[in-house]
Hints:
Blueprint: E1 9-13, H1 18-29, E2 33-38, H2 41-55, E3 59-63, H3 69-83, E4 88-91, H4 106-133, E5 137-142, H5 155-175, E6 180-187, H6 193-202, H7 210-221, H8 230-241, E7 252-255
Parallel strand pairs: 1-2, 1-4, 2-3, 4-5, 5-6, 6-7
Helix pairs in contact: 1-2, 1-8, 3-4, 4-5, 6-7
Bound molecules: NADPH dihydro-nicotinamide-adenine-dinucleotide phosphate.
Amino acid sequence: MDLGLKGKVAVVTGGSVGIGLAIAEGLAQEGVQLVLCARNAERLAEKAAGISATYGVKAIGVPTDVSKADDISHLVETTRREFGGVDILINNAGTGSEETIMTAPDERWQYYWDLHVMSAVRLTRGLVPFMRERGGGVILNNASICAAQPLWYEPIYNTTKAALVMLSKTMSTEFIKDNIRVNVVNPGLVLTPDWMKTATLLTADKDITPEQYLDNIAKENAPIGRFAAPEEIANLFVFLCSPRASYIVGSTYYIDGGWLKVIT
Ligand code: NDP
């Protein structure tokens, strides 16, 4: 199926590994040109070059900390200079937290607010004018199942991801008049290198392999009994970017192997 994305330009935050990289590759496969960002410049450059070589699209990496306003201004300016604008924005960069409400200082709340919420606000403010010039666009935010079904050990993550879902809904109403569709995706358990690293650390002195540890987590939580591969999440993102999803506006999609325990 031709998704009608050839020649479009996308900005993908956190596009150097995990879900963001899988989304970038899925878009590149459809002929989309890419601006990827992340903090680790070396890994970013390597992945952008790999995507260019594999899929024959222009893909650049712009080292950026999306929690910082100045870095985002630089990312917006580089996108304008290199591509003359943008059609798609994927706000994906983010990470889990681990704390209790009683022990986490204000700075930690502020950091995750900037990382998960203000990054999307600032990038939207910077890039929507380009989308308007082109007659429309797509913004997709990557939140989490934790936005609705919290994990007790990461209150800051749960709260800031819930805010991102509300931001997405509000943005969708403000921008649809410009033919810009905004939606949000809430993944469940997705097997990224970071999960593998954590599992390796936690099982180092135990009588269980990292794979068994992860398998147990999946079986305890997700009715499907396994983690998703990043590509399984990316497929939904790529579809939502495409004109095939033209009537989808302001929606929240769970992609969690059945983990969400309520209907919404
Ligand atoms: P990874 O840790 O695998 O990748 C995160 C990406 O974001 C990397 O490219 C990282 O690069 C980048 N990144 C992290 N912090 C920043 C920052 N401050 N500025 C710019 N880039 C940053 O994460 P996942 O692929 O697992 O997760 C991607 C998104 O999906 C996150 O928002 C996460 O909350 C969400 N999610 C993940 C789930 C999972 O099970 N994996 C489940 C539900 C939601 P670098 O470190 O170089 O900056």
